[in-house]
## 1
Amino acid sequence: MLKIGLTGGIASGKSTVCSLFADYNVPIIDADIIARQLVEPSNEAYSEIVHYFGKEILQNDNSLNRKKLRQRIFSDPAAKQTLETILHPKIRQQLILQSQQQHAAAAYIILAIPLLVESKMSDLVDRTLVIDVDPSLQLKRLQQRDEISSDLAHTIINAQCSPKRRLASADDVIDNNGNLAALSEQIKLLHQKYIKLSNGCQRSNSQGQ
């Protein structure tokens, strides 16, 4: 089974891209969803985060105040590193486990990993698919989506790896500067490409046995 690592900067359109691949019945494993599950009060990561950051990052129902936590980590590099140290190994473990649990009949799967390059998880995938978007459009989308200031949006974007570094790791690139129709057409062509690549890998494996 071919494993495609989908990545891109914040507000680049990863959720939309995943949805379009899912329309072709492609299994999606989303690191963001895994991260949200890991920080639920019943999980070990939650306790570690509260121990380090204190109860001031909790809401009244004891769930994490994501907005407050995000502001904290993007204003304090040491705090950001600590959060990543807590979460990244656990996210990696779940990505591996969930990949192994996928049905063998699937030609390929998508592992949506926002920090694929930064967190050095490229070894988990066979190909890297990068979503590219103009920085000014990315900034506008982030401000609108999260209702945050331009300064905070700039800080969040700058804390991630540069588009140049991300693109350097790419096997395939999606241009998400256009409309939904243009994006859908790119996903259609990539889906066809990955089906062919998967079939080629399967033939090679069978011949080698």
## 2
Amino acid sequence: MAATQDWHIEPGPHFSDTPDYRESWPVHCVAGTTGAGLHPDLDTEHIDAFFRKGQYEAAYSGFEGVLAPEDEVPTGDLDAAAAPLDPAETVSLDDWLRENDVDEVVIVGLAADYCVRATALDAVAAGYDTFVIPDLCRGIDRAGTRAALAELEDAGVELLDL
């Protein structure tokens, strides 16, 4: 199993003092802070790899992420010494999935109308059988989430009920 984390270092105009909540957002998920951490109730026992996305840009899709170093605790505990991840020297989510003979992707998480949507569309484009569990996703906006889920179905993503 793989998980993604927003891991912002300097994402440029993705952060804004006057966000539009479409392309710009308040400061969030800053690398090395608890804001980038995983929820304490998330059972990480079966997560084999963490992919960090958005270091220097928005990066909504998990397929834009890079494999986090194995020796780093993936909780987001403050670590000012953590070095930025270099995409040229790391493994992408797509590479990792292929190396592990994964052909189906099930996506859950935040935000359904942005990151879940982008990750699912990229998974379909990469040739994976792609599933989203809407009951395990939350969006920013109800109408936007409904539209995103309809778009995903139209793109070939299967929506699964719990």
